[in-house]
Structure formats: structure tokens, C-alpha cells
Design goal:
InterPro entries: Secre_tail. It is built from 2 helices and 50 strands. It is an all-beta fold. It has a 5-stranded mixed β-sheet, with no helix packed on it.
Length: about 750
């Protein structure tokens, strides 16, 4: 943020300066539907619906002289303490002792619990106007009048206003009463200054400065610049009149049409006034009678307020009836001509969707904060009552999220096991007075309570009352209670890998059962990682490769919506290098979200069980290591998963180790591209090689050998490797003689004879 004054030279001094100019540094902006926008945090807070809470969306009958001008007073937690206008002061849907308000000012320092409510109003008896001060105490959460005084101020019955200036270093403030005339003395238009002391008492008028021109009648709301040096208002002929609070001089400014907002900001020692008109925003420097139109700021029918971040806030929109009519925008007053407004919140619709004019319904003097602590927390992101406690399942963490504001160096909690009537359970869990240091993250695992308390809480079902209490710097205690119900639940993954078989049909890696299960189907993994032959061998195009249900039983879990899936399950296969740990691809090569996994779930389409992968099965290659991951998202235990590794040892070039990596019965030879197939040695005394070239990867190739009587002695289907292929067939156990072979590959079919000697 840029300097707002010559005195503002550092961030530290800027913070001090801003803290001393409460009037023009509003924190909350009233939105539609009982919402307020916090200009400090950039968040929207919804207040209880009328009449349970004061209304904030009053209708403005006229722009420059509204009958309703709500002023809300909020705590540091964002809850509304009370709100008022020039006719009413409201709390919980009703008036507070017929009080009304044109300005609200906190008394004392940061631990204040009292507010001065300043109001200027018509006195029907004497047909004049006057100004008084009422003191409200909000320490109990209910604004209660404790004292009051009437200023010796008398003004015109129709043309008057009162404003409150920023706090002085000694805690005092100045109150300014502006009127067209004093009917008792028949004076000219005047401004009177009164002192509002830090203890709530008031002084008689410090001065009464008269304007020598009787036509300079106030005809709008008044505003005080953020440094307290000037008061500004519009007079009957449209001129913006400014009043120097030190020299008591009246200085006319530019003449304008009806305006909707006015704000004075000290920029490098000069007060600049920003004015919102029917369709544009203009500004002028103090003492000037001409205005400059702000760029990119058209369509503003709204009051203006200087926020604590040094930005100007306005509801930027058009004069409409019904529907979204304006957006809350900010502009930087330090930029010449202002920059394009930035959106802060959308659709500021006042008065139940019907608004002719938009107003800053946090007041110019107006919206203040109570520096009290706000204690709040959730457990596992939820809330619970005695009747409907938040369920905590033992398979998850018990995370307490601290929402206390302002953030404390430590929090204190107590946990008591209770029955359905909120009475402590005899012999039950009772843990109190534990102070938790601030971790900086705001999250605390209740399973890690000191001693055996965390373990006990994490394993014993029941209803527990958790109370958090904190004390603010003013010695005020705040607390919050949540109810949780601990439910015992286990959730782990249990599945069984099924791999290719050897020639005898015996599964090589039977695996073992682990203490894991998922939902109502159970799966058993074998030892991992499986990275050495001959653990899983055979050709995946012939045998089933996949997972099937395990044998462990357990409590059925409730499926939740798995991220990015239509079912609670996810099965994926990840490709690794031969070391079994280094990823070879950044994304899974196979991924499915089946509705259930009750039958074999295969990675290839060569068998008929349900839920197999119908594409990409050929991406499972020889000598790679693959990781199968089965996961589920359950309501009770969140996302749970387990994994197992497998490796195919069935031929083909190694991907990353520079050698063949295959068992001894495999040998690769180069075959000239011009030759379709090479069978050698022929004749043979032991084994014969079938070698050929292929342009395909993962396609089926079949070698069949029959004797002279047509009896099958060898039949094998295997996956081709792009380039050279060589299959060694062992004929050592067959009788000598002539045999007929058929070799079917992606290139075609070859028949011939081989002689066994």
C-alpha cells in the first residue's frame, strides 16, 4: 500500500496511523440477505435472519438524505452486536430503549466493551433538532444502556447531521453537530465541536463556528476526512462545503448534482475527496472547486468507505429494480485517476432484491469492532450436538481444528464421556485442563493426548463432550462445546493377486493372507515386491492376470464418492523399472473403477470374468515390474488402499538393464528382414529355435507341432515382440522322427517339418 500521508513513512507507522482513524476505516460492508463482507479478511458472514437479528438491508428513500442509515457494531468474530439508524437502535429484532444513532464510537482501548451512540434528531416539542450521546455496555453480549447525556446543541428542524471524528491519542474524540441554523438565536448555518471523553462523558461546546452565508444550508449526510481535519457536506445549491476543524474556516468546493457517497482521504498531506454520482465517480483536492472524473469507475450509485487496507470500497452497479444490481468493488486512492475497480463480492442486492440506490451500510463513522476473543473448533471438520453427535470412527484420526480468533499461543480443552442426558458416565473417560501449545497449523490429533488418554479415547466407543476455553488479553473467558460419538471401525485392503501359470498349470506365487479388507469384498496380496524370476511366469495372453477376492471377513463399510469415479473402488496398475521402486511412467497404465470386485478382475481379455480391462492389456510387458493398487473411499474411514507387485518373465527385450533378463530357455537371434521365418538347427538332437521378424508388439503368435499321426506334441501361444523373436522348443523327450510344425504370426502362417535325430 502506498503512503496515505507525509507522516506515513513505514509500515509500522502506517499501522499506528490507521489504528487512530477509526471513522474512515470500516471493517464490514453490509450485503444482501443478512450478509456482511469483512474487508480485513475478505470473507462473507451470514447473520441470523430477521427478526432474530437487526436488519442490514434498509431501503434508502433518497440518496443524499436517507431516513435509514444503518450502523452495525460487530465483534471480532464477525457477529453483529447491534445496529442503528437515525430513528432506531436495534438488537435481536427490537429497539433498545428508543435509542437511535448517527454515529457509533468505541470507548477506551483494545479491551473496550462500551460504545458511545451519537444521535442527532428532531425534537417535536420545540420544533428543533438536537444531539445526544448514549453509552452502551456490550460485555454480556447484550447491549445495555448505562448512561447518557444531551449536548447543548439546537439546530434546524429539517437540515442537520452529526459526525464523530477519529480518536485522539488520549482516547478522546470530537463530535461535530452541523445545522442550517439555531432557531433559538436565529443564527446562520453553523458547526459545533464537542468533546467525547474516553470515559463516555461529554463537554460543552468547544466552539460554534458560523458560516457567514445563510444560504449554505446542509442538505446531505456529512463526512469527516480520515485524518479528522475536515468535515464535508453538500448544501442546497449542490456545492460541496468543507469545514476546517482547526481553523474553523468554511471553504466551498465544486458544485455537483445529487451524490451518493463521499469520502476524504489524506494523501501525502493533502485531503482528496472522492464523490460517487449517478453514473460516475469524481474526486477533487481540498480547496479546489473543480473535479476530475475517475477512470474506469462509472456506474457507481453507492456510498464510499475507506477500508482498513487503505482501499476505497463502493457498490459498483446501476440504478435498477430487482435482481443482482451491484458488485462490491475496491479502488486504490493512491493511484492518480484510480485504477479499474477490483471485484470483492458479487451481487450486492439490498432491500430484498429491490433497490433504487445503494448505500454504504457500514457507516462512515460507524462500524467498529469489539476486541474480544472468539473461541470455536470442529472435530474432523464437523460439528455435533448431544442429540446428533459427530461420528468419529477409530480407523481415522481424531483431528481438532482450532478456529479461535485471534489465534492464541495455546488452547485448553476438557473431554468428558457422557450419557444421553449429558451426565458424566460413572467410571468413564474424564480428561480436563489440558493446555495445547499452538502448533502453527491449528490442527491437533486427539489420539495423541498425553499418557494413555489418547489411546483410551481412540479405542472406547461412546459419546464425549469436548469443551475448549480461552481467555483474551482483557481477561474475558470464552468457550465452545462440541459432542462426538466414538465408533469402533476397521478398514484395510485385502486382495489376492492371480498370475500366469507354468506349463503344468500350477500357480507359481500363491501368496499369503494379510490382515486387510475393503468394503464387503476381500482380497489377499502375495509378498511384495515380486521382482525376481520365476515368481510370476507364463504368457499373460493365455493365463489370467489380475486380482480376486481374499478370505478375510469384516464389517461392511459405506461407500463414499471416490474422487473422479462413479463407484467407490479404484484399481490401477503402475509401471516401475526393474528395481521395483522407480516409476517408469507418470500415470497408471491401467485404471478402472468397478462397481464391485466379487469375481476375478483381470488385466487382459483372454478370460471371461467380469470387470476385465478391455483395452491396453498389451501394455503389460515382459521384465517390467508392475504395482497393483486397490483403493476405496469409505464414509467411515476415508480412502483406504493396499498394493502388490508382479513381474512377467516370459520373453522379450529388457527395458532398462541392458541385458536379456530372461530365463535360459530364451535366446534372441537376428533374422534378416527378408526371411519370414528361420527354424534351426534342423535336423536337431535336442531343441529347435523358431525365429522371425515382426512389426507388431504384443500380438499373438502360435507354434504347433504334431507327429505323423496328427497327435499334438507341442502347442504354445505367446506375445510377439516388435523386431526379432526367437522361441526355443524343447524336443529332448520326444522320439526321433519327422514332425510337422505350423507357425502363425502377425506376418502370416508358415508350415514345414523338423527332424528329430
Amino acid at each position: 500500500m502506498k503512503n496515505l500521508s507525509n507522516r506515513v513513512l513505514t509500515i509500522a507507522s502506517l499501522c499506528v496511523f490507521l489504528s487512530q482513524t477509526t471513522q474512515a476505516q470500516d471493517t464490514y460492508w453490509s450485503m444482501a440477505n443478512q450478509q456482511v463482507y469483512n474487508t480485513k479478511t475478505g470473507t462473507l458472514t451470514t447473520l441470523p435472519a430477521w427478526p432474530a437479528s437487526p436488519r442490514l438491508d434498509y431501503y434508502y428513500p433518497t440518496a443524499s438524505n436517507p431516513l435509514w442509515d444503518p450502523k452495525g457494531v460487530f465483534s471480532s468474530a464477525g457477529n453483529l452486536l447491534f445496529t442503528g439508524s437515525q430513528n432506531y437502535l436495534m438488537f435481536d429484532g427490537g429497539p433498545i430503549s428508543t435509542l437511535a444513532s448517527r454515529g457509533v464510537a468505541p470507548l477506551g482501548g483494545s479491551c473496550t466493551s462500551k460504545y458511545a451512540v451519537i444521535n442527532a434528531y428532531q425534537t417535536s416539542g420545540s420544533h428543533t433538532s438536537t444531539c445526544d450521546v448514549s453509552i452502551l455496555d456490550v460485555s454480556s453480549g447484550v447491549p445495555t444502556p448505562v448512561s447518557g447525556s444531551t449536548l447543548n446543541a439546537y439546530g434546524d428542524f429539517n437540515h442537520f447531521d452529526a459526525v464523530v471524528a477519529p480518536k485522539q491519542t488520549n482516547g478522546d474524540r470530537y463530535v461535530y453537530f452541523i445545522s442550517a441554523l439555531n432557531p433559538l438565536s436565529n443564527s446562520n448555518p453553523f458547526v459545533e465541536q464537542y468533546t467525547l471523553h474516553a470515559d463516555g462523558t461529554t463537554s460543552s461546546a468547544n466552539y460554534s463556528a458560523q458560516d457567514n452565508d445563510p444560504t449554505h444550508v446542509i442538505n446531505s449526510r456529512a463526512k469527516v476526512s480520515n485524518d479528522g481535519a475536515y468535515v464535508a457536506y453538500q448544501i442546497a445549491d449542490g456545492t460541496i462545503m468543507t469545514f476546517n476543524t482547526a481553523t474553523q474556516q468554511f471553504v466551498p468546493g465544486p458544485k455537483l448534482t445529487t451524490f451518493y457517497g463521499l469520502e476524504g482521504v489524506n494523501l501525502n498531506g493533502t485531503v482528496r475527496w472522492f464523490v460517487s454520482l449517478n453514473s460516475r465517480m469524481v474526486y477533487f483536492d481540498q480547496g479546489s472547486t473543480s473535479t476530475i472524473t475517475a477512470a474506469n469507475a462509472g456506474g457507481i450509485i453507492s456510498d464510499i468507505a475507506l477500508g482498513p487496507d487503505g482501499l476505497l470500497y463502493a457498490a459498483r452497479g446501476w440504478q435498477v429494480t430487482g435482481g443482482p444490481a451491484a458488485d462490491l468493488m475496491t479502488l486504490d486512492p493512491t493511484i492518480t485517476g484510480l485504477q479499474t475497480p477490483k471485484l470483492k463480492a458479487s451481487n450486492c442486492v439490498y432491500f430484498n432484491g429491490v433497490s433504487y440506490h445503494f448505500g454504504n451500510q457500514i457507516t462512515g463513522e460507524n462500524t467498529n469492532e469489539v476486541s474480544s476473543i472468539y473461541t470455536d473448533f470442529t472435530v474432523n471438520g464437523g460439528r455435533g450436538t448431544l442429540l446428533h453427535p459427530k461420528n468419529l470412527y477409530t480407523c481415522t484420526g481424531f483431528d481438532l481444528f482450532d478456529l479461535t480468533r485471534p489465534v492464541q499461543s495455546s488452547i485448553n480443552i476438557s473431554i468428558v464421556q457422557v450419557d444421553a442426558t449429558d451426565n458424566p458416565v460413572a467410571g468413564g473417560f474424564n480428561f480436563g485442563g489440558y493446555s495445547i501449545p499452538n502448533s502453527g497449523l491449528g490442527v491437533y490429533n486427539l489420539k495423541n493426548l498425553p499418557g494413555t488418554n489418547g489411546t483410551w479415547l481412540a479405542t472406547h466407543p461412546g459419546i464425549y463432550r469436548i469443551t475448549m476455553y480461552t481467555t483474551d488479553g482483557c481477561g474475558r473467558l470464552a468457550s465452545h462445546v462440541e459432542y462426538v460419538q466414538v465408533i469402533v471401525a476397521n478398514a484395510t485392503v485385502d486382495f489376492k493377486m492371480i498370475g500366469p501359470s507354468d506349463n503344468n498349470g500350477t500357480q507359481v506365487c500363491p501368496g499369503g493372507v494379510q490382515d486387510r479388507y475393503i468394503y464387503s469384498y476381500y482380497f489377499t496380496p502375495f509378498a511384495q515386491p515380486v521382482t525376481t524370476p520365476p515368481c510370476v511366469q507364463g504368457w499373460l495372453g493365455v493365463s489370467t492376470l489380475g486380482i480376486t477376492q481374499g478370505t478375510i471377513t469384516g464389517t461392511t463399510l459405506t461407500p463414499a464418492n471416490y474422487p473422479g469415479a462413479t463407484t467407490p473402488y479404484e484399481v490401477r496398475v503402475e509401471e516401475l523399472k526393474s528395481d521395483g521402486s522407480t516409476p517408469n511412467k507418470t500415470t497408471p497404465i491401467l485404471k478402472k473403477n468397478p462397481g464391485s470386485i466379487g469375481l476375478a478382475f483381470t488385466f487382459n481379455p483372454k478370460t471371461s470374468p467380469s470387470y476385465y480391462f478391455t483395452t491396453n492389456y498389451e501394455t503389460i510387458k515382459n521384465n517390467y515390474v508392475y504395482k497393483t493398487v486397490v483403493s476405496m473411499n469409505s464414509v467411515e474411514c476415508g480412502i483406504i488402499k493396499d498394493s502388490s507387485y508382479f513381474k512377467i518373465i516370459d520373453g522379450g527385450l529388457s527395458s532398462d538393464d541392458g541385458g536379456s533378463g530372461f530365463p535360459e530357455q530364451w535366446r534372441m537371434v537376428e533374422v534378416p528382414a527378408s526371411e519370414f521365418v528361420n527354424v534351426y538347427p534342423n535336423p536337431t538332437t535336442n531343441s529347435v529355435h523358431f525365429a522371425w521378424n515382426s512389426n507388431a508388439e504384443g500380438k499373438d503368435a502360435t507354434i504347433s507341432i504334431v507327429d505323423v499321426l496328427g497327435r499334438m506334441i507341442y502347442n504354445q501361444t505367446l506375445a510377439e515382440t516388435k523386431g526379432s523373436n526367437d522361441r526355443l522348443v524343447d524336443l529332448s523327450t520326444v522320439a526321433s522322427g519327422t514332425y510337422h510344425y505350423t507357425l502363425k504370426t502377425s506376418n502370416g502362417e508358415k508350415t514345414g517339418t523338423v527332424v528329430k535325430q
